[in-house]
Amino acid sequence: MSSIAIVPAAGKSERFGGAKLLADIGGVPLLDRTLQCLLDGGVDRVVVVLPPSGRFEAVRLLADPRVVVTVNPNPARGMFSSIQAGFEAGHGDPILVLPGDMPFVSSGTVTAVLATYARMSGMVAPRHGGRRGHPIALPDSVRPAVLQAQPTGNLNEVLKALAIVRHEIDVDDPGILRDVDVRGDLS
Q: What is the mean pLDDT of residues 100-113?
């Protein structure tokens, strides 16, 4: 089975002041940078989970044939509900999860996570400076538990209940810990 990445991107961006995914980073929309690192890192397909309304024409990679767009009909339930919408929209093994507001992850990190997953079973997560970050890689076998969980829950609870084996790899990529919540996070 080919690899897939789920990119939850249906939040309101209230702390940012709206339109966070379209914020300019070096002439490129934030969401394009997030998607590009996954594609450049070797992910075969990306499922982007967007809100039911919004204008994303500026995000050029949404037109890429390797990118599938799906909608979270009720993103107010939280990010986990967007992850579930992504799981419903696509199958793959491994399944990477990378929040849409993490545009500073290196494509080399994505490649390293995929390579480690190919050698080991269970979950793979990158670690920088002793802290675990994103993207994480999960086996397709977690799909039923993810889809059956309450949408207001969280992925970590599901993985703990499954007692999934976790592997961490050290990477020289501070981007795995850097999400964008407010405008100041862009600098």
A: 97
Classify domain 4-186 by CATH number. 3.90.550.10
Cβ(113)–Cβ(126) below 8 Å: yes
State how far the Cα of 78 lies from the Cα of 90, in Å rounded to an integer.
Answer: 20
- The pTM of this model reads 0.94
The strand pairing partners of 123, in sequence order, are 166
CA distance 67 to 46: 5
CA distances (Å), origin 176, targets 57, 114, 130, 173:
26, 15, 12, 6
Two tokens at 111? 């490649």
Kindly state the tokens that stand for 6.
Answer: 């789920």
Res 68 pLDDT > 90: yes
> Is the CB of residue 114 less than 8 Å from the CB of residue 44?
no
Distance separating the N- and C-terminal Cα atoms of the chain: 38
pLDDT (tens digit, 9 = 90+) per residue, 43-56? 999 999 999 987 88
